Protein 1
Amino acid sequence: METFCEAVQFYLKHLEDSVYPVMTEEQFAVKLFPMYRYFVTVWLRNNSPEVKLGVIKSLRPMLSLLLPSDDMREQVYDYIPLLLAEYQGSLEALFVTQVLRQLLEASVTTSTPIPQMQLHTIFTELHVQVCAKAPAQQQYSGQNLMEIVHCFIALARSYPRELMKFFFSQMETSKEAVRVGTLSLIRAVVGAEEPRMNIKAIYLAIRVVKNMLSDSRSKVRMAILRIIGQLALSGYQDRIKGWGLKYVSVQLTLSTYKLTNRRDSFYQRDLEEKMVHKVTMDTVRIITSSVSGMTNEFWVRLLCYIMETDYMEALTPICISLTNLAERQLHGNDGGPSLTGKSRHVDLPAPQKLLARLLVLMSSPYKGEGRGIAMLNLLRTLSQSIAPSMADMWEVEIPLLVQYLEEHTEFTWNQKAWEDKLIRFLRNSLKKTRGSNWSLCLSKELNNQIESFDSPSLEKGFLYRALGFTLAMGLEADKVEVLLLELLYKTDYSNDFDREGVILCFGLCARGQVKTVLNVLHDFEERIQESEQSWQMGAWRKDHPWRREAVKSALMVMYSCVASYCHPQMLPPHVDSPITSKIIHHYSSSCQDVCLKMAFMKSIGQVTSALSRVQGLENFQFAQKTTLTGIVMGIIKAEPTDHLVSPVRTMAMDTLSHLSKLKPFYSMEENSELMDISIHSVISLQPPGEANESIKVLYANALNTLAQLMEGLMQRQLDPKGLQEMVHLLEKWILSEKEWEREKAMNLHLHLMQVYVQSVGVCIPLKLGQFGSLVGLIVPCTCDPHRRTRIAAIEVLSSLLDLHASQTCSPWGASKEKAFARCKEDLGGSDLENVFCATSSIAKKLCENIGAVDLQHDKASVTWISTFLRMRVKELEDKVAEILGAVLTHLQVVANLEVRRLLIEGILLLAHHHQETVLTVLLRQPLPMESHLTEVWLAVAENLPFARAMLHGLMGRLQARFTPRVNATSKADIWRLAAVDPLMTLCTIRLLIETMDKDDKLPDLFPDLIYTLLLQLSGSHGPEASSPVLKTWRLVHTGTLPEEINLQRITIKSMQLLFQRVSSEGLVRALQEQGVWGLLENSSTFLEGVGLLARLCVQSVEGSRQRLSELVLRGMASDILSCRISSTAVCVELMSNPILYQEKLLKPAVLMLDKGVDHEAEAVRVLSLRALGNMALGAPKQVKRYRKLLLERCLCSLRESTSTSVVSEGMAALTKILAELREGDVGSSFNPISERCRAFFDNESELLRSKAFVLFGKLAKVVWIAKKHFFKVEVRKAWVPLLLHCEDPCSDAAAACTATMFQCLHFWGWKALEGSCARSAASAEEMTAFQNTMCSILTQKKPAVLQDFLLETITYVRSNLSRIRIAACNLAGIIMKQMSACYLKQLDLPALRNSLQELQLDSDPGVRRAALETLKVLDNCSQHSLLASPEGTS
């Protein structure tokens, strides 16, 4: 049929060319209509989808022949309901709609209306498909909707009133989908292409839309906005004036409000609101570009929107729209009011207000789709209306700004450069308005906008900057003061961003208004009345309660900012007062926390920097310099010297650097003091760890700032004296024990040395003594264990040599330079042998060609040295180390005995007057001890009083590690606290003890020496043994040390020599026979050896007991763990001896042991408890006096579940203590001791079980009358464990248990039971007989107790100990044999049998046998109980 119709159409088209025209179009229609009718009425109802589809596709070509016929057209309309019915079937809706569209469009073109009765059905069927979701099987739903739209357009052309009435009825429903669909159709009708829709349809459509303006749902609002935009696009601009523009304005405001006050939990709603806003913006753009004669009200609304909105994303399209409107009005395209026109209801914004708003927003030009260019174009367009005087300048400047933004993107532009351009634009603009109040009005508007922006933000930061520049150009100072005061009052000083913004604003304002700014600050300070009460009241703003310190901090920086920005010629008259004096006042009257300190130093830094920039101040004297210096030095001193937590000290040193450049200059003494304080503040800091990056940065900044400060201060005295003074300040740090202090001091020395060498004008040569002292200080550091310190030391030495060579005109040769370079490389390596060799090589090169070396010259030189030392030895404190180093060097190579004797005498002379320095130098010599050094110590040993003094000094060096670290207060302290090799110290002590006069028994030194050596030995075994005693100093030994030279062997050998000197052969023999030395040498037996040694000493060395006791008590208070453990171990033996009580040292000893019981180290707790228990041996009569403390501490130890040793020692101590107490003495502690003791009867530890049984037996002896009843109950509770543990696998525990059990028999009160087995060590047969007797008696007297015993015994069949399981089975059998039938019936026999049967699977055959025997007993008892029962009898 489709092909046939196409052939007919072809035929009709070429009808004039036909030779034999037979049929016309009307005739074809008449012939075709029956077929159309049959297709629609019959075939279209077929159930086959293929048939339906074929029929519906054939209808369109048939209709193209039928519809042109007037007669056929009306007949075809009659079958429209049949077509509409197909929408309800499975046929694709698109094909039905296409047929329907063809019919409706034919109705329009032929002006043949469709019957009225069919219209509502057509409206409804088509409208439902628009508003409802298409079925899933519909493949062409999108195309179908397009066809439906065309259908409605055709209907609107023919039946506008009926259609709009239908739309109105549909809009009355509240369903959003229906309303949105209807509005979409109206939009399509409004936007129909040519021919245009008649005005009546448009009028009716607008009436329908107006009824929906109150709907607040997002999709409905978007649909209405799109209709308004479509009306404007379609040429119906007059129809939207009034209601349409008002609706767009309202939606613009409403969507902006919702977006700026959105909530995170309503994401979907926010997304819809964004869509509404976008559609609104599109509508505004359409309106402003197409609507002529725009109302002034809409223009004002858009301008006000820019001024008030917080939703920045909308600014760009609004600005573009306003620019379009303005350009059209300027060019006369609109007939509406001009830009300067005014509405009766809404005023246009002031020019300054608009400029301020746009200028601040332009500071972030790429936000909101590039709002900067849009706003610049708007300003350019409105230039004549904003400020006619600026218009010409803006015509030139604004295109340049636009060009800059177009050449960049948000990723390539520079914020600072752009803000500078805007500030320049603002400054040039304000210059055009000089003589008027324009800048002041602009300042007010800028000030009003401060609260419109968030903190922090780029816009608000620029706003503060622009406000400062604008205020600086104000002409009326009184009005500027009002604005500045208002700004001070409304600032939130707790907000860092706002505080910094106000400070910058005041500084920029001071460029042109310095007096005004200072007056405002003074007025502000007076009004808030600097008192605690007024600060805390919150003053002028209740929403910003000021914090006193925050305001003071801001005021300090404001004053310094004024100094930094004001005109250079205005600074000198105001810098001392009020600027600096106010800064000092605010800091001094504050709490001076970290923030205040930083603000104070930032302020002083800005003031001093500003002064340094002023030209022509050669005669200016900064009056406040001394006061400021004192405050800054106090800040540095107050900083912690061991850690770094803030940049305060760095800022303080930087401030001192600035102050040092101003007059009056510091004196040499002040310079030295500043350098000393700064050096101590930084060099003492411990380097930061690897994890904290921020602390690393602070640390590096502190070091750099210290170097800059030292460099600046040294510039004032660039001569040898100044250099030597600087090195003198670094000396104690170069000699420090801590490697990081030595490294930092050496690096600083190197930096300052390089500055000194490179400085121009250094022409005063170093004197030989000065050069020697500088070199002598540095040379030892070339052997430092820290590589970086060695490298820095050799670089300093190289600089000194270069300086010396340049000043003496004696440069080194090329060969020496190369050799020196090789030495440098060796010092940078890790091989200690190479380091030592390199140092020696450098020393030789320094000493070459100094003078003759024959014997006569040597004797003469040595004689001179000896004479000089005798005459001036007391005055050589600073030179002792240098002299001693030189003497030892010569002593090593001199062969003549006379010369050697004189040199050694010189060393001894130095040692008499400067013992600590000489000791440090001698002890820092390498091991093994070389012959010349041995010779020196042998000479010391010959002088007995001096040797004893040196022994005291050597002991002090060893004891230093066991005492708290102290700071040096003198030169002697520096040397005394310097790091030395403990092994060298021990070797020296051993040498002196071995070589001193044998007749001297050293009675006064003996206890101190023994105790010191014992502590040294304990340190080698204790927790500190993994690191050297003084790890900050390691010596470069000349070779591998012999095996016998180690800390333990040297210490033990020294102790052996000391005991031999006591001349007690019995003691020496006892020490050897009992293996004390072997015990001390082994870490696992060390404490046993200490105890044995102490016991023998207390017994044999009577004169030293008191001193040894005092030393032990002092050691027990040490923070060093090894010292405390060893001292407590000695105290264990002292407590078992009357010596402490006799010497009145018992009380402090008990108090120290009381603290030791709570120590975190287990060994200290164990030894403290043991010592407290030994009081019962050494001072038994004092046990009663200290019973409360003793019982409490021992009882606490029983509650510790983590340490078996502590619990065991606590029970052992209690056993000894209870032996000296009576029942009344124990008091309330008796009950918990008994209960805790029983808790350990079944413990897995054999030791704890054994100690618990012994302690329980001791409690049984203590019981008298008061505790008898309580202990009877305790015995009953303990009886089953006691019976069973007599078979304990641990023999000690079994013996103790058996003895305790028989000690407790009398608490049962049965003579027959006591007489059954009186021996504590009974055999198995005797024990079984005893158990039978006991059960027999219990059956007669306490059968219920026997039943309880059985139940408790059964629980032990699950014991981890097989012997206990066997004993439990045997005891259960004995009890069941003795139990009466009535109590047997009360037992859960099946459960009992199950427990015993489970033991048949036990891995121990003995357990299985015992369980089997008990099962047999159980079966016999069960049978007897059944026979005895009434049921069994019957």
Protein 2
Amino acid sequence: MADLKNRGRNREERHKGTWDPFLLNPAGSEKEEKRTCFRLAQHLVTVIVGLAVLTSAVVAKGSLLVLSTLSSPRSMRTDKERQFYMLMLVFCLVCPNFLVFLKSLWKCAFKSFVKPNFKTMAFICAIESLVSLGTAILVLIVMPQFDILTNLFISGGVCILSAILQIVFRLQSEPWKIVFPLCSLVFTVAGYFLLGLDYYARVTSYVDRQGGDCYAYIGIGIFSSLLISVCWWENPLQAANRMKATLHELDGFRDFVFCVSSVLRIIVIGGVYLLYHYFCEKSIIWTNYELKAEEWELLQIGLGLFFLQAFCAAACHWFGVVACKIHAVRMSFALPLCCTGPATLLLGLVLFIMASNSPTGIDGESIRKFCGSLASLNGKNTTSVVMLEISRSICHTSLNSYYEQWPFAMLAIEGMCMWLGFVTCTHYVWKTKVQRIERTSQLFVRRLYESCFIDLSLLLNTKMKVARAHTQDSESEIENCVIYLCATMWHETYDEMLKIITSMFRLDRYRGDPEKPHNDRFNFESHIYVDDAFMIEKETGKRVVNTYVNDLINVVIEVYRVFTHKEPDDVSIIETPYGGRLVVVLPEGNLLIAHLKDKSLIRNKKRWSQIMYLYYLLGWKGYVAKNPHKIKYKAQSMRSLDSETGNGTWYIRTQNDLETHCRKGITDENTFILALDGDTDFKPKAVILLVDRLRMYETVGAACGRIHPTGMGPMVWYQKFEYAVGHWLQKTSEHVFGSVLCSPGCFSLFRGSALMDDNVVKRYTTKSTRASEYVQFDQGEDRWLCTLLLMQGWRVEYNAASDAYTKSPEEFKEFYQQRKRWGPSTLANTLDLLHSGAETVKRNTSISRLYIFYQMFTVGSSILGPASVTLMIAGAFQFVFKITGTLSIIIASVPPVFYIILCFLLKANTQITIAAIMSVMYAFLMTASFFSIIGDMVMQGTFLTPTGVFLVSMTIMYMVTAILHPEEFGLIIYGLMYFICIPSGYLLLTIYSLVNMNDVSWGTRESNKGGVEVKKLHNVLCDKKCQLCCWDMALQVTQETENVIFQKITGQPALQAVPLLVTNQTTAQETAPVQQNDVSPKGAEKEKEKDRFEKHETKYNHVASISSSDYSSDKKSLLSSDDDEDEDDDDSMTDQTDNRIIPVSDWVYPVKDEFLKKLTSANMAKNLREQIRYVLPPSEDELCDELVLMLNDTLNTELSRVGPEDIPTNYQIEQLGEALNRHARQILKNNHKRKLELSVKRAIEKTLTAPQVKQLDEDENDFWIKLIDRYLKPINDSKEHKEQVSKELKSLRNKAVFLYFMINLLWVVATFFLQAIGNDVISIKIPKYFPNGSLSDEPLLVEPLSLMFLLSFAILLLIQFIAMLYHRVYTLIHIVSYRSKEKDYQEVDNQKVEDDYIAKNPGAMEIITIGGDDLLA
């Protein structure tokens, strides 16, 4: 309701100034707000992850303590049981090393292998051996000798070396924080001292017959803890920038080092185990490993504790990483890990107290009596083994002393000291700042975790300073990036343009002022490349823009009104060597540039538009950014509307300034190209999520998002599910197992340095000359570009949370024509990649040999698609019509063969019509096939048939997949439509695409409504058509013709219109159009005003045409000093030499007229109101209302003789500007708000500023001429070449059809002969089970070929399903991390902006505030 009232108020305001207050408000123009459900979900995920970290850490730590207690020589277990539990302890130590070995081996074998430096590798292996030695000694030798509480506390000493290095290298950000590592060192030493005192008290008090050999184990335990503390030596050294060369070199071959070191660690662990327990203690008896059936409890407890410890340790490590990536470092990482020790202690004490109260059903009187009763429970089944041994281990402490129990306090204080020691040592973790999406290697020093000390391992492994680049001081530089939005338009409709323009305005609102920093650290420019933008008027022969460009202009104006309630402020019209350019400054100050391509001057179509913007944005703009001294910029070309201030600083930034600022200081690695289609709809979140993927990994060259087709009708329904399945399963599996093969051009982000790599853009400019190149290069340009990136070693990724919406074909014909391009180009590019697979594997670390095999399997499955569909239809015939298998195959094969023949004989449109009819017929057959499968399961009496299991499992898999995509769950409804259209999509469409491969036309959006339209004629005085006999005659008299006739008759020079000056900044006085003949009673008055204006502005009358200088300056400010004029003498002389007469093209005038509508009196009143509201701070509401009211009265008074839809004369606008400024100064003076004059003056000048007509600067003009000449000349192939290419395309078509036909024919023939031979002769017998689990006497007979294909397809789907699960988890992590860093929209505080500017430029205030009223006062 509030929204309705708000729109009503806005409409009432608009209605006061015009009779046309109605507005087209596109969907999505409202401000994006953080949804409450997402906030709740974010907090819920944070809590769940924190609890998972705490729970898994406590279970892993507790399981290890229980195993050490069970394997202790002082336990009540038998020698065989202790030996088995000790073996489980060894497995616990080996498990993380084995996992790291497998992961590193996978990367070395299938990703990348860098030859190691053996000196560095030997150094690392020596350290790993020492760490492994210390861990094995502590866990396998020392801990079994101590009680469970001592074992819990003693592990805290592993942080001692880290604390010492922090003190030595002074790694604290503030000097006083050195107290943390000092306290850590003190607490740890105190803990070790109290440990010795505690055991001294036990020995002297004869606690549980404690012997004096414990002192040796205490010393060994302290020594082993020191060895373990070496594990995290890299962390302080990296923070201190020590051994930079060694550490940087280690990063290159870390995988190979981990392969070797993990094996070495396993050997050391095994060696310690054998050396101590076999040779020293002689406690290993090999026959004890042969467990009998009655020893199932031993096996169950031992293996259960091992798997629990290994799984929970790995889970704690994984959840810890997740906690850091979702920016929950404190609540879900540091806090749970710091509480792991106290939580484990609390849990153990609770269990002990519960057991001591009623171990046998009889309450004990004291701890000592309870401990004494435990020995009698060893052979009873009333108490579990684990609880018994935990209680017995606690009884080894001073609690069981016959004399004094107060020494137990020393054990408690020891635990407190050890806990405080590692908490203070890892204090930096609480202040760790993480980017929105961070690599694990940038969060943690080591990939390996120590499962025995999982809490300490994770905290000590967290980097003390998260690395942003090779140098720690380059944080701001590495984060800043520039995004060029590049949309290619080809005959889009008005509604389609509305989507892309609205999306660009949304991003402008999200980014805000480009001068201000942003949370996401990016700048952006929007570029639209309009193909076929011009046409020739039939009547006049003039070259003008077509209706597609007019639609684009109207969309920009309409969306600008929706977002700002006013007309565009800053618009430039520029003529270029390729056609023209429109530059619009968006409401927040970012640029929207529309490049209008003339197909007679430059190559049209999408690939050449991409080459055009790649060379312009990466080549030219990158060259300008790196070599600003080589570009001949001039000061006057940058001059703003406010002219100069006292100190030579410009206040309002021009478009050239904005373009330069956007790319300033940005490297090619942080320059991104967002490729878009002309109908793409997206939100800022989608762009930022793609940027995150490229920022996270330097090897990612491109990233694509989730594309959603839009539209209505059955064809769109089919595509919705097809797109969903393709993204849910295929795209995710490609991302997980290797690299995405195609990043669609409708919404993909490319890295500038990747595109600029060798054999990418340069190769992309190749002009097709052979038949295969026409198919691969021009029919699927986005897939070919990705293929070039993959071959150069770049990775392409997929982000499922980055949603974009694009128009999909709604008609059957348009759909087939689109897929006719996609199908052959996809196959050609995939085969090209597979052909160079060996070389690609060497270059690309993301592509392995297994991934190449996976792609070969998928390609083979797609090639056999027509045969598979044919056999599916044959199965339906066989079941429904009760015919033999061989006959059903023959009948099912007839329609495809018939359609192939028709496709060779008939035209493309007729082929599509026949395909549509056959698709309907096949839909009925597919329905019958679906019921035939169900019927077969009913007849068999079970669904446990190969076909039934496959159907049921596939249905369950798709349902689970849809549930895991909750926002897209509704798409599962279209699955039935997809199923019945399988023959059309995989059989008929394949045939149509192959047979028509020789047709390389685009197929969609071929109509050009703009090419035949006649534009409205300007300055036409008479336009008559008549017919004389058989002749058609046209009589047309224009203003120019009348002037020439008048000159011939009277001998006087013809009257000329006020010329249009082409300057960098053209005010309304200089660009107002020539007034049309006014037939109203006010016409004479206007003519007088016009004459007065012409006399007043006689300096323009000597110009006979349009000045072409892009550097001509505006008239000098009356307040400029003589010194400033002297400084500009050189530039003025240059300007005089550059002023030459160049006519402006005909297309400029109608385009300019569209934007000139902002100068109507109605629009000026609205714009002035919004401009003042924008520039004044919210605290000045009353002043704002007064200014709006008074200035609107002034505007209405000055323009009382001008209609609401008419444009005032130049003189009227000049007088209006002076009156508005005069009244504004007076109001501000009366309200004592003189410091706001600059803001109000800017608002008035923006209101009165007309669109600017410019010429391209000399350097850029030269660039475009050379670029077009080298790469983008219009293609005019000779007739002979076209005929040769046509023959080659037909030959290629015939070869492809023959190959496809033969492969599918062989598959069908093999199945046919297996059917002919019979199931009794050649078949696989599968046991038949009924739903109740009973086994049938008759087995199922399945053909080997069908079973093999079914199993292969099922395995493929299972692999894709697993990849989808993995990808879903990391997508959730990314979404949560984005929501935690999402930008909040804030109102612009313009007063602060003004104050900051005036503080930096004290002379500006004095200059601007001096006016005529002040001089008269």
